[in-house]
Amino acid sequence: EGEFHDISLQLRQGEILGIYGLMGSGRSEFLNCIYGLTTPDAGSVTLQGKPMPVGLPKATIRAGVSLVTEDRKDSGLVLSGSILSNIALSAYKQLSSWSLINARKETRLAEDMVKRLQIKTTSLDLPVASMSGGNQQKVVLAKCLSTQPICLLCDEPTRGIDEGAKQEIYHLLDQFVRGGGAAIVVSSEAPELLRLSDRIAVFKAGKLVTISNDADLSQEALLSLAS
């Protein structure tokens, strides 16, 4: 209540749906609600025709949805932890039996993710805090992909990283949806959404203003709709 209301969106397989809005538009709050970090006053979420759990992030992950959080250092990573432990953090269900983690499976998963996402490191045992911002963000994405999600929720997925690392993240998201996944990307950077998205939903003051798939949509038009 007070964050957003009367928003209805449909996400298709193989699609990136961008969400654009200014501060206070309810864009991040909407994403957090889908993931289960907050509980809506009303409404529902369905995934492949099945109702999603409400207010339960662990159940949301099991249903096939992962969240790339807005602040990797605050909520996306355990900075003092190793690359290995961070990547495996959300995949404990696949890696454990009788509450015991299978160390061999954990290592294999981390090695596969480092190779797949081209994470630059000399050892899985290095602390995440020692990595560049771009590689830290890849570890966040690896952690999310390790749960084999159907849908990725991405909140400012390239904030605070350089242009080269941004392009790598864009490529990984493109790969994910080409492989049959779907993604919702919240970003305050209009060029980013215009580059990534098949459609863009514009939020303003907690409401959905429009959804556009216009290939000729400009940064200026997005800003005008959101203001």
Automatic annotation (TrEMBL):
Any one GO molecular-function label of the UniProt entry: ATP hydrolysis activity
Keywords: ATP-binding, Cell membrane, Membrane, Nucleotide-binding, Repeat, Sugar transport, Translocase, Transport
Stretches assigned to the ABC transporter domain: 2-225
Keyword Lyase attributed: no
Superkingdom in the source lineage: Bacteria
Lineage: Bacteria, Pseudomonadati, Pseudomonadota, Gammaproteobacteria, Pseudomonadales
Coiled coil: none
Protein's UniProt name: D-xylose ABC transporter ATP-binding protein
InterPro entries listed in its UniProt record: AAA+_ATPase, ABC_carbohydrate_import_ATPase, ABC_transporter-like_ATP-bd, ABC_transporter-like_CS, P-loop_NTPase
